[in-house]
Amino acid sequence: MVTKIKQAPKRKKLRTAGFTNPNALKLDIPTPPTVRECLAQGLFGSGISPRGYREMSVEHSKQLIERHPSLYRLADASPVPSSPPFAREGFACGDGWFEIVGRLSARLSADPNLVVGQLKEKFGLLRISFEMSPLPPSEIEEGTDIALAEAVAESQITCERCGKPGKHAQREGRWSVKCDACTAEEARRKSLRPWMERLLAGLPAAPGGRSRLDLSPEHALALLEKYPGLYREAWTAPTSPASRFATGGFEIGDGWFRIVDRISARLAKDTAFQVVQVKEKYGRLKVYFERAEGVPRDPRLDAEIEAEIREAADESERTCEVCGEPGTHEERHRWWSVRCGTCDQIDEISAACGRIGKLVQGLDLAAFSANEMIQDAVRLALVDIGHAAADQPAKSRERLPGIGWDRLEHFKDAAAVKGMPVDELWRFASEEASVLERKLR
Ligand SMILES: [Zn+2]
Ligand SMILES: [Zn+2]
What mean pLDDT comes out for the span 85-94? Predict the structure, then answer.
């Protein structure tokens, strides 16, 4: 592979000694975090949210900086606008080039005067430029140019996304190196609707959805990938509110995932079908489907499928919508739902927290301290919470992390709750209860 000369990295002249921007000192603004500080917090080099695969992963960036502290010393420089790009962006190339950059770094580290000022992808090739370090200048280590040229040549045949052999080509007007699989994956992701992107980002499908009762992103994605034809509205429908499925997604809890998976497999056998809505109603699973335009109806097949959907709905009535364990179909808090005993108790904790919140509404610490009746009512609710928490098995505690289960469990000790100081009781009632209610709702 021939490396184009014009892609060869340029060397820049020395900037300010020590790499700090003198103007920054004059401004009375807090210094933004350095690349190293961003990485330590799990953020990408630039400190902004991930920009996709065109950025080295946090783990790999950290490794490079730790192994070659001298070469990447700009990771500790303040990222002001006039700083060299590396201080602001870190490694601005895809993770697929990690090995190439690693090998190159090992060779460049031999020269203590070399400091990387920018490392990025440009025109589908690796590009590196240097800042000269403030150390006394010495001869640039022989072989540096060769090492660079070799790395650039390697980048030209290495998928920037996954590191496998790739093709350097213009894709939609932009040069890049990708393997066939990554090219296909990119095209596929491009077709995703915005809510699909929300799923990929680990957010619930519907903004302001039913919190704990939205199908988790992993489960939703699993269904969409397994049955792309059946759920084609998610991939292809315009974002118009007319498409109920594309805007709402799977409006059911994770406990029903297996049931929906099974009925999807049945429906997907006929490629003319597509699902237009999946939701819970009166504590039962509802699945609505349609035929592709122009496909004639088949009453016999329809009756057969309706029967199977009914069977799935019957099964949903016996299956806890939250966790998938056997549950009972009942009216709870004026809503029909299916819950197992454990999940019922989680709802009880949430409801008790809601009661506590109402009790202290409009009070301040002084008024609360003066009112023993309200204090007692709060203590009573705490004991309820303690018993419900103590009954939670490890499985449901894992499903709902960050609740502080052990502490809640202590509340079942009535004597301890009775002895709780008023200010501690107040803190729980006025601050924690509402947070807990929301998390468990
Ligand atoms: Zn690839
Ligand atoms: Zn359950």
Answer: 89
